[in-house]
Amino acid sequence: MRNSSIADRDPCPYRIIEDIGGAFAFGAVGGGIWHLGKGAWQSPKGARTIGAIGNCAARAPVMGGQFAVWGGLFACCDCSLSAIRQKEDPWNSILSGAATGGILAARAGPKAMASSAIVGGVILALIEGMGIWMNNYFSEAPPGMENADAMGPPANDITAPPTTGGMGMIPTGLGSVGVGRRPTKSSDVVTMGVDSSFDSGGHETTFDSGSGASSLSSSSKEGGSGGGWWPFGGSS
Questions:
Q1: How many CB atoms lie within 10 A of CB 83?
Q2: Over the Cα atoms of the chain, what is R_g?
Q3: CA–CA separation, 16 and 10 (whole Å)
Q4: Is-contact 100 74, C-beta < 8 A?
């Protein structure tokens, strides 16, 4: 499994600038908080605020610069190892941490270089190991959901995408709420009875869905003084 923290990093030429800026910000903010408290602790009563601010302003940029040097050297070693090994993995960071620690302690002699390299490699190994463990822990599926993708959606899941067309898309159990089919044959006839407030004369209107025309049938013929379909009596 590829480490997501490595995959999300910028390409190598830009990674150096990013690491230098991030390390300086981290060192300046962290060092400012540390030296602010240290200055307030060491200052006499009545001058703790001024002493804290002065100590922070004097030491915080120095610590930020030290962190920036460490981050820039680490990024250079990391890019060099990536170009040599032609791969991105946690070993690049571990070896870069060891090389950075050894280079920064080069003026103190070989023993100091070796000890600093070991400390740097161990610290980076712990950081990378913790990152890999957290990545694997949060990417695992919850208990009981290992085979959820293989099982698929439930049989009556109305949110599942349709697999058949037409009326087959209606889920099971909805037939009892009035879902039906329309007439599909041209010979199907729909009959509608006329029931209104005026005198219909016992007529019945029939619609033929096949021909599209309507025919009016009556039990009594038109005319005469008797009531016909005309509401005002017989025709003149």
A1: 9
A2: 43
A3: 9
A4: yes
- pLDDT per residue as tens digits for the range 217-233: 444 444 444 455 555 55
Which 8-state DSSP code applies to residue 175? G
Q: How far apart are the first and last CA of the chain?
A: 97
Extended strands (E) in the chain: 189-192, 204-208, 214-217
- The encoded tokens of residue 74 equal 């680490």
Q: What is the pTM of this model?
A: 0.54
Strands 189-192 and 214-217: unpaired
H-helix or E-strand spanning residue 178: none
Contact status, residue 231 vs residue 199, Cβ threshold 8 Å: yes
- 67 within 8 A of 23, measured Cβ to Cβ: yes
Question: Directed axis angle between helix 12-42 and helix 48-85, to 10°?
Answer: 160
DSSP annotation of 73 reads H
Contact present, 56 and 42 (Cβ < 8 Å): no
Distance, CA of 46 to CA of 66 (rounded, Å): 32
Confidence bin at 65 (pLDDT 50/70/90) = very high
89 confidence band (pLDDT: 50, 70, 90): confident
State the DSSP string of 98-165. HHHHHHHTGGG-HHHHHHHHHHHHHHHHHHHHHHHHHHHHHHSPPTT-TTHHHH-S-TT-TTSPP-S-
